[in-house]
Amino acid sequence: MTLIGYHASHEQFSPSELLGYVQAAEAAGFGAVMSSDHLTPWSERQGQSGFAWAWLGAALQATRSIPFGIITVPMGWRYHPAITAQAGATIAEMFSGRLPWIAVGSGQAMNEHVIGERWPSKAERNERLQAAVEIMRDLWLGKLVSRAEPIKVDQARVHTLPDEVPRIVAGALSPETAAWAGGWADALITINQPPDKLGKVVDAFRRGGGQQKPLYLQTHISYAGSEEEARASAFEQWRSNAISAAISETLRLPEEFDEACLKVRPEDMDEHVRISADPQQHVEWLKADVEMGFEEIYIHNVGRNQREFIEAFGREVLPVFRTGTPVAASSSLGEGAGQGIS
């Protein structure tokens, strides 16, 4: 059975709002939560950036039993891997079994530049990421860790250890990164792309050593009461993600992202966001993801209408993946509803 989870976007909503949304998501039947971890939003239109680790403890306390995951960058800029290991261990000790994974990525300047150091190349960041993963794993085993490079560690030890060690999941957008991560990651998480591109990422991870390892997907969607509203929400809130990864990883301020997106049009959004007011269309997209082998799928509705999305998917979409029964049309959705790693 594929797990369908809810994505909590700290870039778009205040921490207090997100607490209410994850409670609603659990009540609606979402099976887990994925949290972003940002110091700055992608755009001034989003306008938030709560501290994800503080929020994570509150959110686990505010919900009953669903597990949470978080994607973060533990490479010695905002977070040293020893601090990330301590944070993860503390959460995992307080909420046993409810932090099954921590996803890691090579980061973006937008969140990491604030410490005032140079922004290194992708190759150097990958080297630091793999070292960070090794450091975290050793610390979670209670080892005394010292390293000289590429990340300095001086006799670090985590004394409060997790009851269950979280899986370390590699965030990857390209086949090259996915293939490299296959050998060291416990699982892969990527984002929705056109099927041919997404298939190449999955195949590369498996070729690189991830043959039997889990596949997770974060899928960006825009659901609303009409196609027009769904497209407008995708464009208003998420057009910053229409620029290439090579460009986005070097930009520093929300204003720079807004400037880089000046030529993006509403009709350009379909490659980056699944836009539909029809729950059945979203079901079909998710079924295709399941067929590709994704075991956990975290849905990020990019619009601001979170409660509308949570309630509609709780009625119309989630039951399909719990029972395998077809989705019936719902008269309660209104006239327009008949028309979806940093």
Would you spell out the secondary-structure blueprint of this structure?
Blueprint: E1 3-8, H1 15-28, E2 33-35, H2 52-62, E3 68-72, H3 81-94, E4 101-104, H4 109-112, H5 122-140, E5 145-147, E6 153-156, E7 167-171, H6 175-181, E8 187-191, H7 195-210, E9 215-222, H8 227-238, H9 245-248, H10 254-260, E10 274-275, H11 279-292, E11 296-301, H12 306-316, H13 318-323
Report a brief summary of the structure.
With 342 residues, this protein is of the alpha/beta class. It has helices at residues 15-28, 52-62, 81-94, 109-112, 122-140, 175-181, 195-210, 227-238, 245-248, 254-260, 279-292, 306-316, 318-323; strands spanning 3-8, 33-35, 68-72, 101-104, 145-147, 153-156, 167-171, 187-191, 215-222, 274-275, 296-301.
Describe this structure in words.
It contains 13 helices and eleven strands. The strands form two sheets. An eight-stranded parallel barrel has the order 1-2-3-4-7-8-9-11, surrounded by six helices. It has a single domain, classed as TIM Barrel (Alpha-Beta Barrel), CATH 3.20.20. The model is unreliable at 324-340 (pLDDT under 50). With 342 residues, it is of the alpha/beta class. 41% of the residues lie in helices and 15% in strands. Helix 2 links the parallel strand 2 (33-35) and strand 3 (68-72). Helix 1 (15-28) packs parallel to helix 2 (52-62), helix 1 packs parallel to helix 12 and helix 3 (81-94) packs across helix 5 (122-140).
